[in-house]
Amino acid sequence: MQVSQDQPISSDAPLQLLLFVDGRPKSKQQVQRIRSYLKELEADYDFELQIVDVGQQPYLAEHFKLVATPALIKVHPEPREILAGSNITGQLKAWWPRWQAAMDAYLQLESDLHEHDENGRVKELKSSIRSVAVSAELMRLSDEVFRLKQEKEKLQEQIQFKDRVIAMLAHDLRNPLTAASIAIDTLQSNYNIEKGEFERLTPKMTVHLFKQARSQTKIIDRMITDLLRVGHGKDREFFIQPQKVDIGKLCLEVLEELRDRYTAKSHKVNKDIPKDLPNVYADPERIRQVLINLLDNAIKYTPEGGDISVCGLHRTSQKIQFSISDTGPGIPEDNRDRIFENHYRLERDQGKEGYGIGLCLCQRIVLAHYGQIWVETAPHGGAWFHFTLPVYPN
Ligand code: ADP
Q: Which segments does the entry list as coiled coil (predicted)?
């Protein structure tokens, strides 16, 4: 008999046992009892016993699906048997004769499998006995394979996300590019070089086309700047974990969380979230933050009895748009870009509680999803925030 602790065993003992223990004093006493009982047993065969501390090798406990320690496992010969609970020695007494019988059957089978080849050389079939140490190593490896598989899935998801984003960006860039090209083409085709003037175009029309070309190229420039900001890792802490998200459902959950706040101010909340709004490819926790910040601001800056509206829209095949409007004071046109800066607050609102970081965070999150966020004046006054996100592919 071999009783080993800690060091790996490499004997060929046919009966292989694993004893799982933990660090509790009570458990130590039980283990002592089991070990001395095993020593007392009149064993006809060698056996190996390896002690495994679950604290040090939790993956082994997981592998054997153990729910309690100590536990004694017969790992060889098959089938595996697990004795657990407070009376392992009692159970062992009952099982021992059966394990011995299993040994007899196993050794008989093994001797039957030895055969001679034509040259008379003994061809010994590899013993199927694996030492406990080897099986432990195999389990560690299978654990590692599982971890790598999960990592691979995560990476594949991210590649898929990037593919979606590229499709969305290509689509987004094409719109202003087409508009700018049409304006430039129209100007070019109507320009008479010899006369140095635009024919068939009124001066008003000419100015409009120049403005159009300029504003569309500005939009393209802005999109590329945003893209580079994300790409250069300025927002590196924003590692998002995109997945399939039902944003309509998420938004309703957030509204429910904020119910106490808006009912306290007697706000009327209008929801226009189509049932067939597609899922988005996004990090649910991050998007929850965006929704909370925007709705929280709408509640904060809208006077009692005002209206707040939430609207979801399937903008293009690649993206959805979410809009949140209120009937508060709105954002003056000159400050519309600045309110997304860190710590920026309108002078008007310095007296209200807040740190001026909410919108900056929203922008960083939305940009990390390669979406856009902006603000306009709502139809009845008030602020009207919009943001876009990529659609989850079907
Ligand atoms: P905070 O609300 O904590 O000051 P934010 O970054 O969320 O910070 O907002 C920045 C500023 O933008 C606010 O200080 C406020 O002046 C203005 N603002 C944001 N949301 C609204 C809104 N819904 N209506 C009016 N002003 C707003």
A: 138-165
